[in-house]
C-alpha cells in the first residue's frame, strides 16, 4: 500500500512534495477546470477567428495578423501529417466544416474513427496548457524578431 504525504505548496502554488503523484494535466485541471477540444480543433477555431479579425485592419498589419492565423494552422497540419493523412486537404476540409456548420470542436481525426467531432471522440486538452503553448510560441517569435532587428540594424 502506497503512503501519501500531505502536499505542501510553494508561494507560486506549485506543490513542494507529492507532485510525482499527479501529472501536469491533472495539476492544470486542479488550477483551472476549463478544457478545450483537442485534435487541433482549438487551433483551427482560433485561426478562423484571427483570420476574420484581420479584415478590420488596413495595410501591413493585416498581413501580420494573417501570418499569425496561418501559424496556428501548423498544429493541425502536423497532426494530420503525423497521422498519415494529407495535411493540406485534411485541414481544408476540417476548416470548411467548422465554418459551414459553425461548430468549433471539429478537429483532425487522427485515430481514423470516421468523425472529426472531438466531442464524440472525447479528445480534450486543458485550457491552461493551450494558453501556455500559444503564449510561449508567441514569445519565441517576438524574441526572434527582436534579434533579427538588432542584426539588421547593426553596421558591419
UniProtKB/TrEMBL annotation:
It comes from the Eukaryota. It holds the Pfam family Cpn60_TCP1. Keywords: ATP-binding, Chaperone, Nucleotide-binding. InterPro entries: Chaperone_TCP-1 (IPR017998), Cpn60/GroEL/TCP-1 (IPR002423), GROEL-like_equatorial_sf (IPR027413). The keyword Aminoacyl-tRNA synthetase does not apply. GO terms for molecular function: ATP binding; ATP-dependent protein folding chaperone. This is T-complex protein 1 subunit epsilon.
Amino acid at each position: 500500500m502506497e503512503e501519501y504525504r500531505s502536499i505542501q505548496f510553494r508561494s507560486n502554488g506549485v506543490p513542494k512534495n507529492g507532485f510525482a503523484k499527479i501529472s501536469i494535466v491533472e495539476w492544470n485541471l486542479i488550477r483551472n477546470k476549463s478544457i478545450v477540444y483537442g485534435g487541433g480543433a482549438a487551433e483551427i477555431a482560433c485561426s478562423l477567428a484571427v483570420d476574420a479579425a484581420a479584415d478590420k485592419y488596413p495595410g501591413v498589419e493585416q498581413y501580420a495578423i494573417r501570418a499569425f492565423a496561418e501559424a496556428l494552422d501548423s498544429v493541425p497540419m502536423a497532426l494530420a501529417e503525423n497521422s498519415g493523412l494529407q495535411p493540406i486537404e485534411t485541414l481544408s476540409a476540417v476548416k470548411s466544416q467548422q465554418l459551414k456548420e459553425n461548430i468549433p470542436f471539429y478537429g483532425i481525426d487522427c485515430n481514423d474513427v470516421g468523425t472529426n467531432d472531438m466531442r464524440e471522440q472525447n479528445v480534450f486538452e486543458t485550457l491552461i496548457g493551450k494558453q501556455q503553448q500559444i503564449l510561449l510560441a508567441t514569445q519565441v517569435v517576438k524574441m526572434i524578431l527582436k534579434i533579427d532587428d538588432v542584426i539588421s540594424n547593426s553596421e558591419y
